[in-house]
Amino acid sequence: MTELTDEEAKALLAECDNPDCLTCEYARALLDARAELDRVKAIAAAAQAMVVERCAEEADRRYAAGDMGNPGHHIRALAPADGLAMVRELRDRAEKAEADRDRLAAANAVLEAKVAGLVGADVWYRLTWTAAPRPPAHPTAMTGRQNFDTLEKATAFFKRLASDAEFVSMTKFVMVQLDVSDEARAALATQEAGNA
Question: For residues 66-98, b (16+ Cβ closer than 10 Å) or e, as one string?
């Protein structure tokens, strides 16, 4: 049997995509293998381009320091163009991810500072779990929910449950009482001024 081309394999699967047909299984495996090969080739090209780029950067640095001629542009010419494009794309993604991480870290610090300022806030945790039926009292699967004042107590409780218990969720509740009397007075004064 000669090896199928991608077009032949796709045409075969379009006509007969039977899971029990060995020829169809061969066509699917062939297409999957070729797709994986293309993916690996792209990764290899990017890796090769990264190595070339690092060599070129070092050569440029040494050239700037007066250590050697300017071979950086010759080294870069060795890398495949699509690999260099992938290196640039990966760098852009890494820089964006780093910027996102820094932005989220700053936002998290602001939120932590706000939460730290909530003196006297009531905090509790709600554990939710499921358990298998226990006939005759519980003929269907059960869902349990219980509140705890600390996360440690909630997790310790869950560890003591029957072995068929499955964790569903843990929710943290924070209740804060804020005095908004000044805002209310200002709103009332504005309303009174509008009515006068």
Answer: eeeeeebeebbeebbeebbebbeeeeeeeeeee
The model scores a pTM over 0.70: no
Q: Which residue in the block uniquely carries the two structure tokens 């071979």?
A: 71
Number of H helices, E strands in the chain: 6, 3
CA-to-CA distance for 77 and 85, rounded, in angstroms? 13
Q: Closest Cα partner for 44 from 79, 83, 84?
A: 83
Question: Cα 129 to the chain's mean position, in Å?
Answer: 25
If phi over 0 gives left and psi between -120 and 50 gives alpha, with beta otherwise, what is residue 120? Answer: left
Q: What angle do CA 51, 53, 57 make, to 5 degrees?
A: 120
- Tens-digit pLDDT profile for residues 153-186: 999 999 998 888 899 999 988 876 667 788 888 8
